[in-house]
Amino acid sequence: MKALQYRTIGSAPEVVEIDTPEPGPGQVLLTVTAAGVCHSDEFIMSLPEEQYVYGLPLTLGHEGAGIVHAVGAGVTEVAVGDAVAVYGPWGCGTCRNCAEGKENYCTRAVELGIQPPGLGSPGSMAEYMIVDSPRHLVPLGDLDPVQNVSLTDAGLTPYHAVKRALPKLGAGSTAVVIGAGGLGHVGIQLIRALSGATVIALDISEEKRALALEVGAHHALHSDADAVARIRELTGGLGADAVFDFVGAQPTVEIAGACAAIEGDVQIIGIAGGALPVGIMTTAWDVSVRAPYWGSRSELMEVLDLARAGLIHVETEVFTLDEGPSAYARLHEGSIRGRAVIVPGA
Question: Which superfamily does CATH assign the domain made up of 156-290 to?
Answer without folding.
Answer: NAD(P)-binding Rossmann-like Domain (3.40.50.720)
